[in-house]
Design a protein that fits this description.
By secondary structure, this protein is of the alpha/beta class. It is about 35% helix and about 20% strand. Strand 3, helix 4 and strand 4 (about 70-75) form a beta-alpha-beta unit.
């Protein structure tokens, strides 16, 4: 197991580059932080590459080396320079980027995001989709990168279990799904009461819009039905992740 002390080391430079979307795309890898998340990624079959651990976590580095990783022990300050969290756990690692599903391979229950930009919202929706029994996440243009450290931290391992799909043209992808038998329910402030929605059947997509603007006009036109949660108090709207969670659990309850 090698020790690294210089921030100019090529491995350190590559791992630092994974903090950006451009760096992840160039390397074909993304960064996972913390022992629990690393174990979950391995459990889900992701291929591990390079592991960094501080001195206190050297035994963990050896353990992950046995799973096929190149293991390095680094000073705490160097580990902190690679990780995005202010006080990271003692280990991080790069993994090969998992290939997204094609929309042609879409599962039965999908949550689709139309320009959801906040990484915390994307990760929380992903995690809730996993918990509620959804089987796919579809991201349109303008969404936070699903492989960013902030999204993955919020997803808490669900990003390794629930596959994601990417659509360059979300309305077109939704129209294609609808033509193949999916019901597309889009959350919209102008929609009908969610609790009086039509029966979506066995295959459906729940669309959640941008935090400020909601869904686009084109997405609105692609929907089978527009729905909204009733606001019984003084609030005009809900956080995107909260609204998505309520609707996902209700849809899978049936």
């Amino acid at each position: 197991m090698e020790h690294i002390t210089s921030a100019k080391n090529p491995t350190i430079r590559e791992l630092k580059s994974l903090s950006t979307r451009k760096g992840r795309e160039a390397a074909g890898r993304f960064l996972v932080e913390g022992e629990v998340m690393l174990r979950e990624a391995l459990k889900c079959g992701l291929r591990i590459r390079d592991v960094l651990a501080d001195e206190a976590s050297a035994e963990l580095a050896e353990e992950f080396a046995a799973a096929g990783a190149r293991a390095f022990v680094v000073p705490r300050s160097l580990l902190e320079s690679v990780c995005e969290t202010k006080t990271p756990q003692g280990v991080c690692a790069s993994f090969d980027v998992p290939a997204p599903l094609s929309v042609d391979e879409a599962p039965a229950r999908i949550v689709a995001l139309d320009g959801v930009q906040d990484p915390g919202n994307v990760g929380t929706i992903w995690r809730t989709a996993d918990a509620a029994g959804f089987s796919g996440l579809l991201l349109g243009p303008g969404c936070a990168d699903p492989l960013s450290p902030k999204v993955q931290r919020a997803a808490m391992g669900s990003g390794f279990r629930v596959p994601y799909m990417l659509a360059e043209d979300l309305p077109a992808a939704l129209m294609g799904l609808k033509a193949r038998g999916w019901t597309v329910l889009a959350s919209d402030l102008k929609g009908a009461d969610f609790y009086r929605r039509p029966d979506p059947g066995a295959r459906f997509v729940l669309v959640i819009g941008n935090e400020a603007r909601g869904i686009s006009d084109a997405t609105r036109e692609a929907a089978s039905a527009l729905v909204k949660l009733p606001m019984r108090g003084g609030a005009e709207s809900l956080n995107a992740a909260v609204a998505a969670g309520i609707m996902m659990y209700e849809l899978t309850r049936e």
